[in-house]
Amino acid sequence: MTATRSHIMRVNIKHSGKTHQVEVDPSKPATDFKDVIYQATGVPVDRMKVMIKGLLKDDTDLSKLGLKPVIGTAGPLPTAPTEKITFIEDMDQDQIAIAEGNPAGLVNLGQTCYLNSTLQALKTIPQLNVALDGFSSTSSAPESKVTNSLKNLFSGLNQTADPVPPFAVLSNLRIMAPQFAETDNAGRYSQQDADEAWTQLLSALRASLGGNAGGESVIDKAMGIELTTKLQCAEAPEETPSTTKERHLKLQCNISINTNFLISGIQDSLNQQIEKTSPTLDRMAAYSSESRLSRLPQNLIVHMVRFYWRRDIQKKAKIMRKVKFPLQLDSLDLVTDEVRSQIQPTNSLVKQILKDRDDRAKIIKRNAGKATSDDATKEVDIRREERQKVEEAVKEKGIDSETNISGMYELYAMVTHKGASADSGHYIGWTRKESEHPIASGEEEWFKFDDDKVSVVTADKILSMDGGGEDSVAYILLYR
C-alpha cells in the first residue's frame, strides 16, 4: 500500500467461519477498504455487506469510526485494538435486525398469522398512519376499541426492533367479530382467513376514523374505488341500459382455468353475466354487467380469489393456478372512458419517467455496479424535475389530487398463503423496503414478516409467489 504506514492499521474480519487479517487506511475511501476485503475473501464488492457500527456505506468516512491507528514504519504491524468486523452472513436474525434497522415482527398468539400478516400490510398505508396518529376516542364501541388498539400497536412497532404481541388488537377484534374467537375440538383457536380479517379491520377503521365535510371517511378517501356498472339485457337489445355507481375498498381477481395474469382476472370480475327480471320482457332474463373504475384511489387493494367452498368435502379449497402479477400495474384498461381521457397524458408521462429511471439504473449497474452518493444526489434533482412535470400536467387537466393521477401503481405490500385450504396453512406479510439511494444497485429489496421473524428478500422472490403449488402464493396485493 502507498499510504504512510502510520495511517495503516490491521483489523480482523470474519467470513464463513474464517478470520482474515487485512490492512485498512482510515484516510482512504470506504470503497478501497471493501476492495481489500474482496482480495482476502473473494466476495464481490457489489454483494458485500460489511458491518462496522452499522452497515458500511461507500461514502462512509472511515476516519470518523473511532479506529485507532498503529504507529510504526517497518516490520510486521501489531494488531490494533479495534472492533471486530463481522459479515452479515455470520450474524443471527436479531443482530441483522439491529444492524440494518429491520422493522419489528409480531408474535404469533396461536394461529394468528392471518392477523399478523394483515397488520404488517396495513401499516404501509401512509394516510392510515396519519389518521391513527390523530385518533382519540373514549367510545366503548367495538370499532373504536379496535381502532385505538391499532393506533397503539403501530406506535409500538415504530419504537422497537423486538417482536410485539398484538394482544389488544386480537382481543378487540374477537369481541367485534366473534368468528375470530372460534376454537377447534381441542379448544385451540382456529386458523382464520386473512382477507376476512382485512375486511373486518377496515370496517372498524372506516367507522371510527373521522371523515371530511362531506362525510367521507379517511379509509374511503385513501382506498375507495368507485365502480360504474352498466347493465344491458342480452335478450332485449331495445331495452335501455341502466347505469349505477358503487363504492368498494378492493378489487377482486377471479381465477379460472383461463386466468394467467392479474389484470385479466380483474377484468373477468368486472365483466359478468347475470340474471334479473326484465321490465320489458316481464320475466327473468340474461344481462351483461360491465363495470369500470370511475375513481382510482391512491391505494389499490386487489384480492386474489383463491378459495372457494367445496360441497363434497364441506370446506374451503384453494385454487393453485399460477397467476402472474406485476410490480408496476397500469390500470388504464380498467377505467371508464371519461377517466381514461382525463389521465391519459399523465399516464404516458409517468410511463416515460419510469422507463428513464430503469435506463439510468441499468447504466449504473453496468458501469459501476452500485449507485454512489453523487448518483443519488443527481437522482434527487432529476426526480424533483419529474415531480414538477407531473404536477404541471395534473394542474392543467384539473385532476383530483386525492386520487391516482396517472393510473400507474407500484406494488408495496402483500399477504401470501401457504397450504391447501383457508382453514390451515400459513400466512406471511411482505412489504417493500425503502431504498437508501433513489437508484439502488441490483434488485429492490423487500421485508418478509413471518410472524416474529423478519428478514430481507429481493423482488425476484416476490414475483415467484404467483402460484402453481402449495408454497406461499400471493393472496392480498396492496398497490400504491
From TrEMBL:
Ranges of residues in domain USP: 104-480
Parts forming coiled coils: none
SMART domains: UBQ (SM00213)
EC number: 3.4.19.12
Catalytic reactions of this protein: Thiol-dependent hydrolysis of ester, thioester, amide, peptide and isopeptide bonds formed by the C-terminal Gly of ubiquitin (a 76-residue protein attached to proteins as an intracellular targeting signal)
Keyword hit for Hydrolase: yes
Residue stretches making up the Ubiquitin-like domain: 9-69
Entry-linked InterPro entries: Papain-like_cys_pep_sf, Peptidase_C19_UCH, Ubiquitin-like_dom, Ubiquitin-like_domsf, UBP14-like, USP, USP_CS
UniProt keywords, alphabetically: Hydrolase, Protease, Thiol protease, Ubl conjugation pathway
Gene3D superfamilies, alphabetized: Cysteine proteinases, Phosphatidylinositol 3-kinase Catalytic Subunit, Chain A, domain 1
Enzyme class: hydrolase
Source superkingdom: Eukaryota
Family stated for the protein in its record: Belongs to the peptidase C19 family.
Protein name as annotated: Ubiquitin carboxyl-terminal hydrolase
Organism listed in the record: Kwoniella shivajii
